[in-house]
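Two proteins, back to back. First:
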Amino acid sequence: MFCYLYMRNGTVYIPTMGIMEKGFYRGIEPVAVVSATNAEALREALAATITRGNPTVPKLRRREWPPPVILKYAGVRTWSAFERRMLAWEIEEKDGAFRIAGNTKRPNGMWLDDPEQTIAIQAGASVEDVVDRMASILHQAARL
C-alpha cells in the first residue's frame, strides 16, 4: 500500500493512489479533503484511504496523464501553483511494516523523501497506530 498526502494552507488533501504497474502510481478519485485541525475527520480520511489501498488503473503514457486530481479540490490550475505552499508526506506499507516519510523539494524540482522526516513503524502496528501518528504530524505541521 502506498499513499501520498499533501497539506496546503491548513487543508489536507489525500488522493487515492492508483497503481499502474511496476510501482508507478497516480492520484485518482476519491480524494479526501479535510482541515488539519479536525482530528476526527482527518483520522477517518486517512484510515479510509489506507484501507482502500491501491486500485489498479490503466497504464498511460506520460503525455496521456491528466492534470493532478487534487488541483480541482485546491482551487488552483497548475501543479506549480499548488506546490508553492505545500507540504507532502507518503505512507508506505510493505510486509506488514509501515513507513511515514516527509518529502522535501530538491533543487532539481523533484520531491523526495527526507531522511530526517522518515519514521519506521514496527511490523504488526495497526492502521489505527499509523493514522494516529500521521494525524499528529499533520496537526503539528499545521501549527507551524
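And the second protein:
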Amino acid sequence: MRRCFIHWSLLAGLCLPGALAAQAAPALEVSWPGGMAHLDAAQLSALPRDTMSLAFHGGPPHRFAGPRLLAVLRQAGVPVDSLRGRGLAQYVMAEARDGYRALFSVGELMEELGNARVMVADTMDDTALPAEDGPFRLVVPGDRRPSRSARQIIRIQLGSP
C-alpha cells in the first residue's frame, strides 16, 4: 500500500507543474452569437498598442499600455466592421473575475462613430499589472468616474438586446 501511495504522489508531482502552468497562462475569453475565442497574453501583446495615463480614486496617474478593445474583438473574429441598423444596437460587456461588469455600445467603440479609446491594458508603468488588477484591465479615460475601468477582466461578450 505504501508503494502505491508513493507511486501516485510521484505521478501527481509530475503532472502538477504542467497543470499549474496551464492555469498560470492568462487568457481572455471573447464570445459573440455563434462564436467564441480565447486570446492569450502573447496574442494580445502582438496587437497594435496604445498608451494612456489615468488616475484612480484620487491616486497618482499611472501609464497603461495594451490594445484597444475594438482591436481585441477583431482579433478574436467578432464581426464588428461596417455595422449599420440593428448591428449598432449591439453591446460589448466586459466581465471581471469577481463578476463585476462594464458595458459599452458597439457604436461608441467604432472609429467612425464614437471612437472611444477603451483599452485592454496588460501593463501599468511599464511592468505587468499587479495581481489585484490583472492580468487584464479595461482603461476608459473618457469617463468622469473610473467605474468602467474594470480590473481582472476575464471575459468579453458581444450581445444584442
